[in-house]
Design brief:
By secondary structure, this protein is of the alpha/beta class. It contains 13 helices and eleven strands. It is globular.
Length: 369
C-alpha cells in the first residue's frame, strides 16, 4: 500500500452509534465513536430518516477536533442497502445513493446511512465519495452458488470489508499482493464469517444472516432443514426463525447473553452449558475453515483470524490445534474497518486502483439452463 498524504474521512454507522475517523497518510488523526440516544433514534420512521440527525452529530464532533470538510480529500461511508456486487471501491453516484437510501436489498440496516452521509459531505466541498467492499460483496464461484433445489441459489452476507483488508495486510506482510495469494479468512465477533479468498476474489463463504456457517453470539448458524420444519410446526413463526439467524440465536438463545467474555467466565466457573456452547462454536469454526480450505483445493497460504473474539487466547489456540496442518494461523484481534475504508479511498486517489461504478444490477441472477 503506497504512502500518501491524502486526508480521508470515514463514517461507519451502527445501530446506536457512529464510528468516525480521519486518516492522513494512511495513519489515524483520530477515531471516535459518537453515541446516539436510542430514544431519539426511535422517533424516526426508518433508518434513512436518521440521516440529518447523524449528520449534525458528526459535524459537531469534527468541529471539536477543528476539522473542516474543505480539508478532506475524500469521504468514505460504510455501504449498506445495495444489491450483490463485486468487491472493490465504488464511487457514490446517484444510482448507488438511491439504492442505499431505500435499501434496495430489502434489509434495513444503519450501514445504509454511510453512503448518504459521505455523499452529502463530499458534495458540500466538491470532493469524491466512496464505499469500499460493502456487506453485499458477492464474488462466489458458480459451484458455490448451486444448491440441490432448482431455482434456489446460495448468496452471501459477510464481513467483507474486514475480511478483505485483513487479507490485503497479511499479503503485504509476506511481500505479496492480495491477488497473488490464497487465504482462508475468518471474522469472529458477534457474527462469524468464514471465507475462501483465491487470487483476490472471495470465491466462497457462509451467509451469516441466512442461517449458514458456525453459530455465533447472536446467530444460530447452520441448522438441519427438517428440524427447522419441526420447529415451525411446533408453533414457532418464520419471523422467529429469521431473528434466530441474525439477532436471537447462538449464545443469546442457548445462554441468555451475547457477551462472549461472560460466556468464557462461565466456562471457567464450571458452567456445563456454557462449556458445551463455547466448545461447539469453536468446533464449528474449525470445521468451516476446513471446508473453505477444500474450496481452495488445499492451496492455502494462510489462515487469518480477525474480529473481537480473537482476543481470546483459548479460541485461537483451539483453531491452531485443529487447523495449522492446513496452513499457518495468524491472529489479527479486533477489526480494520475504518482503516480499510480509508485505504480503499487512498488506493483510488493514488491511481493504484480504479474506482468502480455500481450498476444497480445483481452480479448473479440465476443460470440460463
Amino acid at each position: 500500500m503506497p504512502e500518501n498524504n491524502y486526508r480521508v474521512l470515514v463514517i461507519n454507522p451502527g445501530s446506536t452509534s457512529t464510528k468516525v475517523g480521519v486518516f492522513e497518510g494512511g495513519q489515524p488523526v483520530f477515531c471516535e465513536t459518537v453515541d446516539h440516544d436510542a430514544a431519539k433514534l426511535a422517533e424516526f420512521a426508518g433508518v434513512s430518516e436518521q440521516m440529518p440527525y447523524r449528520r449534525d452529530t458528526i459535524l459537531e464532533l469534527l468541529a471539536g477536533h477543528d476539522v473542516s470538510l474543505e480539508g478532506i480529500d475524500a469521504f468514505v461511508g460504510r455501504g449498506g442497502g445495495l444489491l450483490p456486487l463485486e468487491g472493490g471501491t465504488y464511487k457514490i453516484d446517484d444510482v448507488l445513493l438511491d439504492h442505499a437510501t431505500r435499501g434496495a436489498n430489502g434489509v434495513q440496516h444503519p450501514a445504509q446511512l454511510g453512503p448518504q452521509l459521505a455523499r452529502e459531505f463530499a458534495a458540500s466541498c466538491g470532493k469524491p465519495a466512496f464505499v469500499v467492499n460493502p456487506p453485499d460483496t458477492d464474488e462466489l464461484c458458480d459451484e458455490a452458488r448451486m444448491t440441490g433445489v432448482k431455482g434456489v441459489y446460495r448468496h452471501v452476507h459477510l464481513h467483507a470489508l474486514n475480511l478483505k483488508e485483513t487479507a490485503i495486510r497479511h499479503a503485504a506482510s509476506m511481500g505479496k499482493r492480495y491477488d497473488e495469494c490464497n487465504f482462508v479468512v475468518a471474522h469472529i465477533g458477534g457474527g462469524i464469517s468464514v471465507s475462501a479468498h483465491r487470487l483476490g476474489k472471495m470465491i466462497d463463504g457462509y451467509d451469516i444472516v441466512g442461517g449458514e456457517g458456525p453459530m455465533a453470539s447472536t446467530r444460530c448458524g447452520g441448522l438441519p432443514v427438517v428440524e427447522v420444519l419441526d420447529y415451525l410446526e411446533a408453533g414457532h413463526t418464520t419471523a422467529e426463525v429469521r431473528k434466530l439467524c441474525m439477532k436471537t440465536g447462538g449464545f443469546v438463545d442457548l445462554l441468555g447473553t451475547s457477551d462472549a467474555i461472560e460466556v468464557t467466565r462461565r466456562v471457567e466457573a464450571g458452567d456445563a452449558a456454557a462449556k458445551r456452547a463455547w466448545e461447539a462454536m469453536c468446533y464449528q469454526i474449525c470445521k468451516a475453515i476446513g471446508s473453505m480450505a477444500c474450496a481452495l483445493g488445499g492451496e492455502v497460504d494462510g489462515i487469518l483470524l480477525g474480529g473481537g473474539m480473537v482476543h481470546s487466547r483459548d479460541l485461537v489456540t483451539r483453531i491452531e490445534e485443529s487447523c495449522d496442518w492446513i496452513a499457518p494461523v495468524s491472529a489479527y484481534p479486533g477489526e480494520f474497518e475504518l482503516e480499510a475504508m480509508a485505504a480503499g479511498a487512498c488506493r483510488v486517489l493514488s491511481g493504484e486502483e480504479e474506482a468502480k461504478t455500481y450498476s444497480g444490477v445483481p452480479v448473479f441472477g440465476g443460470f440460463d439452463d
